[in-house]
């Protein structure tokens, strides 16, 4: 492996990843996360090289507001799966995270068992960029850890922003963790998240909160029965768990596994993944096209002006678009 | 007014619309719906001319599966509002509609009272094009009928596709009509719709279905209490109505009115509209940019090939995007 400033040897890194070399996997993720153009090119070459080795893991998304116990639960859940012979990777998506901040999603210190286990791999959220940027990096990292042979990948995100939908759109199964209690704790969770859940788990069903958790679960069961399920082949279950006390995590896994088997059998899983990939491609294409446009100073000025006038109802949006496209045509974009 | 093939006199049409001339309003909408380039240019000039006269109506979206009684309810609801001194316009969004088909949304024959009332205006869904196209036409028509002095505009859509989100994103208030009964009838309604509702009305609460409707309403009230409300200032109510028997439509209106007053007072309504307009502008810009790209045969070929290879997991989406952009750069797009 060469030093950081020469072109990385794609073949060496690829083979290292396929052989489970964690240092080379980490180096590959760093390439994916880099904004340097040459790093980006290397990252894409590497991804393309590894594509035939991706797609074999079970991809699980987990969300919940801060304090719901995501880290404790994932740490314990991952340990259980490792003792069953699995290899677990945990990735985080949090566009608001800062390395200097207090609560870093996926921070290794939060999942001490998983992070120190040879069959566990924990990667914090990429810290730079927009939601789109963070999402791209996480998706590509997911492909890398799949190629590295992790057979269960957990993508976690905090349930207060727009990242949940992005995460739900890169996984096979989307789990929402909630706290025992009325609906109040949900005030913090983004709209629409409960409706895209493949399962709800009421966490912290321990100590004196067991009965409250059971009541909450019953309430959510009734509510979900009134909503359209995520799939014609799946009615999202509601379970109670205690990540801290390792209670109910076996049931949690058996449901996730049942979902996977059912959707694999119906062909729906493959279809879901195809749709996700194509949507990702199209979103990325749109984003790159917009970046090109706004990268031109003159066009960016026209656009900012148009946006401001549309905002105050002075300019019809369709007229604004005409003006922006005219500006684009006046440049070499 | 000149004949169809010469350029329409924008000033004449604009003044006609401002003076409540229905024939000129209809002609303007035809311009908006036309795909002819010169018509499109006239439509935009007209829109821009009328912009200062838009934004004054109360915009209400209504959705529900076929058979829920949308037409009967809207017809009766509109009549009530007209007798209170309002002027009502009803627009429809249905990308699947065909003029030759059986159930045409907004078809005048479905809302006989409103369509024949001098203070009512009913416009069927534009029949051509994609959801994006139909949405654009409906949004622009909405601006035209606002300029024509209709103070309440109802945009209806059938709750089985993707058009509900588009409609919710062009109105101030989004109403979901449901049938009395368990959750079964919801199987037909699109995911996420209940969560974006500003109110749910259980329709057909008449005859022997009154008690069942009340029970359904209670169920939905419990369910909605567990979901995040659409606004911090608004908890979506659940009411029972009978459009056929004109029962509960007064309560329906009083809730919609209360929502409007509350959100106007907090400034949230203005903010919602600004966000909608800017989002509309950006979506339209993206759409037009993509049209330009796929309008080039060579790029379209590269894109179709890339999409197919991404779909089967052979090509990484980010690599596909690079290939498409390289093709774009090789053309004059």
What is the H/E string of chain A?
HHHEHEHEHEHEHEHEHHHH
Q: Let me know the number of strands of chain A.
A: 7
Distance between the termini of chain A: 39 Å
Q: Please indicate the percent range of residues of chain A in DSSP E strands (runs of 2 or more).
A: 5-15%
For the CA atoms, what is the radius of gyration of chain A?
22 Å
Summarize the biggest pleated sheet of chain A: 7 strands, parallel
Shape of chain A: globular
Low-confidence stretches of chain A: 99-106
Average of pLDDT of chain A? 88
Query: How many helical stretches of chain A?
Result: 13
User: Structural class of chain A, please?
Assistant: alpha/beta
The pair of chains with the biggest contact is: A-B, 61 and 61 residues
- The quaternary structure here is homodimer
Strand order of the largest sheet of chain A: 3-2-4-1-5-6-7
Describe the model:
The structure is a homodimer of 333-residue chains. Chain A has 333 residues and is an alpha/beta fold. Chain A has 13 helices and seven strands. Chain A has helices spanning 10-18, 22-33, 37-50, 70-83, 112-116, 131-147, 163-168, 193-196, 210-225, 249-265, 268-295, 297-311, 317-329; strands at 58-64, 88-93, 120-123, 152-158, 173-178, 199-202, 238-240. Chain A has a seven-stranded parallel sheet, with helices on both faces. The relative contact order of chain A is 0.10. At the A-B interface, helix 3, helix 6, helix 8, helix 9 and helix 11 of A face helix 3, helix 6, helix 8, helix 9 and helix 11 of B.
């Amino acid at each position: 492996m060469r030093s950081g400033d020469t072109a990385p040897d794609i073949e060496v890194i690829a083979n290292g990843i396929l052989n489970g070399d964690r240092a080379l996997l980490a180096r590959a993720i760093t390439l994916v996360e880099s904004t340097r153009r040459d790093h980006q090119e290397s990252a894409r070459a590497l991804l393309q090289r590894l594509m035939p080795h991706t797609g074999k893991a079970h991809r699980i998304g987990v969300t919940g507001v801060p304090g719901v116990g995501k880290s404790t639960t994932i740490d314990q859940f991952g340990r259980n799966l490792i003792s069953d012979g699995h290899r677990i990777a945990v990735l985080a998506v949090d566009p608001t995270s800062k390395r200097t901040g207090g609560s870093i999603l996926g921070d290794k210190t939060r999942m001490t068992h998983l992070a120190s286990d040879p069959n566990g791999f924990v990667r914090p959220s990429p810290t730079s960029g927009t939601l789109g940027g963070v999402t791209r990096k996480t998706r590509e990292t997911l492909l890398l850890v799949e190629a590295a042979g992790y057979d269960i990948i957990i993508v976690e995100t905090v349930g207060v922003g727009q990242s949940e939908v992005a995460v739900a759109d890169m996984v096979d199964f989307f789990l929402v963790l909630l706290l025992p209690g009325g609906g109040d704790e949900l005030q913090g969770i983004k709209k629409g998240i409960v409706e895209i859940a493949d399962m709800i788990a009421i966490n912290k069903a321990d100590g004196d909160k067991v009965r409250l958790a059971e009541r909450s679960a019953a309430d959510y069961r009734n509510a979900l029965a009134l909503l359209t399920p995520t799939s014609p082949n799946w009615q999202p279950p509601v379970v109670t768990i205690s990540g801290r006390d390792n209670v109910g995590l076996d049931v949690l896994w058996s449901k996730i596994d049942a979902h996977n088997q059912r959707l694999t059998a119906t062909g729906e899983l493959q279809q879901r993944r195809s749709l996700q990939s194509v949507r990702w491609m199209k979103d990325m294409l749109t984003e790159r096209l917009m970046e090109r446009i706004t990268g031109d100073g003159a066009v960016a000025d026209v656009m900012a002006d148009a946006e401001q006038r549309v905002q105050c109802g002075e300019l019809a949006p369709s007229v604004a678009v005409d003006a922006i496209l005219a500006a684009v045509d006046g440049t070499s974009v």
